[in-house]
Amino acid sequence: MDRPIGVFDSGIGGLNVLHKCAALLKNESFIYLADYAAMPFGEKSEDEVRRIAVKNAERLVEMNCKAIVVACNTATAVGIEEIRRLFPNIISIGLEPAVKPCVSELTGGYAVALVTPATAKSRRFNELMSVYGDNTVAVRCPSLAKSIEDNIFSLENIRAEVYDILSGYRGAEAVVLGCSHYSYISNMIKDYYGGKVKIYDGADALALNLKRRLEWEYLISDCAERSIRFYSTKRKFGQ
Ligand code: DGL
To answer: What's the number of CA atoms in the CB half-sphere (13 Å) around residue 139?
Structure first.
């Protein structure tokens, strides 16, 4: 089997990203790492998030990964540059909020970009917003990722929390999911707007970007068999 691609997040948020990558790259093996011990990334200081991001990249490099997918907006916003600096010979792809495609498709209204507090503060996100974020409001969502993680089998429990966040933005035309955990509440967001909202997720662009980079570096696998393995810190994966 070829060397795997490593994917990490603080929990289950990055599974959506893994799914998109695995669907596009059918001969690639993957390792998914959920760093439960450090969850929630988005409530931590910049230094802590950077250290956590680097630590997880290091773990995946030690597992012989040929590429690192940072399936987390927070770790990308704060740590991707450091990961690239420390591991220049490994492909590293981050998850960016899809602000640019969202704004280009607005038809006169405005968008909201839902992000963690750490992403909201980060230089990378603020630069993205200042270049592409016309008519887009950044909305910090303290503890939402953790609520999703803790209620993943009973998401109805957090409907009121989600609606409360959106209540200040009733007129929004589009919503950018700026945290990989938020993909689990996209239907709830649609419900809030009575179906009349467009939702943007950076996971598709990430998967395409990964494919292009692997092709560019002649690292695409043609193995007939592949594996997808799951690891976690602190507690067993999915528990
Ligand atoms: N899923 C992560 C993100 O995309 C972080 C969630 C968290 O641990 O706070 O930002």
So the answer is: 24
